[in-house]
Prior knowledge:
With 186 residues, this protein is of the alpha+beta class. It has five helices and six strands, in the order αααβββαβββα.
Amino acid sequence: MVITVEEKRPIITTNCPYNLSLIMLNLSKYADMVYKIIGSAMTVHSELNWGLLEAVYQESLHLELLDRGIDNQREQEIQVYYKKHLLEKKYKMDIVVDDIIVELKSVTKLAPVHRAQLCNYLRLTHKPLGLLINFGEKSLIGERWAYDEDSNECFIVDRYMEPICDADYGCLLNTDESEEKHVIIM
């Protein structure tokens, strides 16, 4: 199964479970920064090409963002609690720009486990937006994911920062690797 989101604005269905006006209002303020982050990632991909180690792209994107005057943090830790107990295990987000988590991969194809990782980071931090960017393919591949705190759910958004309500989330987050799953939303 191949899911491709085209560049034109998708039709938002009326049975969308999200409060669209509130979500669009909250996410639209991030559109310019997302554009700059994706542009920086494209520059890194153009300069280094594809298939190197994720850590190489992480350091390069960090530097590219700094060169463009965009403050960012690398490997910012997420504290995890279990029943009010702080766990010793911590997660590390690749790059954080303001309230945007940037999760990088260098794999032959994005998998549901990569999407789930970003969604877990969004849920744990309550940050509203995350980018999943894959440097492991010939073309730079990326997805925009948003977090709705009221429903505690993550959903994919298009380049206009609008929820894509007709996306097959079972397919996108399903761990059954037997079917091809791909979303291109850059």
